[in-house]
Design goal:
20 strands; 9 helices; 26% strand; 5-stranded antiparallel sheet; alpha+beta; disordered N terminus
Amino acid sequence: MHADQEMSSAEPLDRGGFGSGGDAAPAGVVLAQASRGSGESLPWLVADGRALPLREWADEWPLGRVGSLTELVARWSDHESGLRVLTSRPDVRQVIHSRGTDVGALRVQAPLEPRQTFCTIGNYRRQMVEAALDADDGADGPGAPARQAAALEALDRRSRTGEPYVCLTSSERIGTPIGNLAISPDVVTLDWEVEIAVVIGATAHEVAAGDAASVVAGYCVANDLTVRSRVMRADLPALGSDWVQSKGMPGSLPLGPWFVPAWQVPDPSRLRLRLSVNGTVMQDDTAEDMLFAIKHQVSYLSRHTRLRPGDVLCTGSPAGFGVHHGRFLRADDVVTAQVTGLGEQHLRCVATEDPSAALREKEKELMR
């Protein structure tokens, strides 16, 4: 985690994803990648707001000797059964409670550094209907009922005969889930998209939907931040979406804070996603509104590319984007994104220096 992304330990953190209260808090023992202050980044076991480094169990469990969660998931087949036994033992939870560090004192980072990262687009029914209503003469305009009917018909047809729409995005986007989000002055339409991120735990190619669960290692919270005004290229309208310009900003895919093993999420369709800006709820829905369930997304993706342990698939976002609310993220905003049992992100937006302004200032100094 870079210094400009960190939140001072003196600053209060919303504890929705840290403590035992709230629907976002995991029920079981989960994992995090974090450090104490400027110390070494390590994998930790987390339970009820307290954490112990995984290496505390290194003498008994080989998985305790891994240097990162990325390394652990890369060898998921070797470690899955041991981790399942370890995290289910009551004495492990008791040790974390008695000897652990308050997670609020840790610098929590994204749990993984994915090899490949994918984002599913337009996968929540109510979000697609909302976008149709907001178009043209608006949700209250005379054309709204016809657009709504057309959208519902298209969604019904697509759910029966269509496939997910997935884009490949840069893993360099992965950002911290707790701390500061740097926004450049030229980014004025930064939009939010809370999502369930699926972490792949096995090599997968041409996997049937019915077998997709067997290649999922676990889940995380994601926020697929998008520069909305850059999605479509005015100079090349016929070529469609430009995901590099709109989804390439460093730190624009906050991931975590926790890695939650798949056995703690028996039915991901029942997960509730919520996102708020400055305490005002902008998104609130469940994964039951997905057009294509997670198993169908994983299956589709595996038919078109080879998936490997540690790859991440962000599975779409519910209604309530900033473009619908008529506002986007700006300096001093606080954005929280949470998913039932997966934890909560907490980010403060900060403005970066205008590089052109700095250059002009430097030129003035040279002229003096």
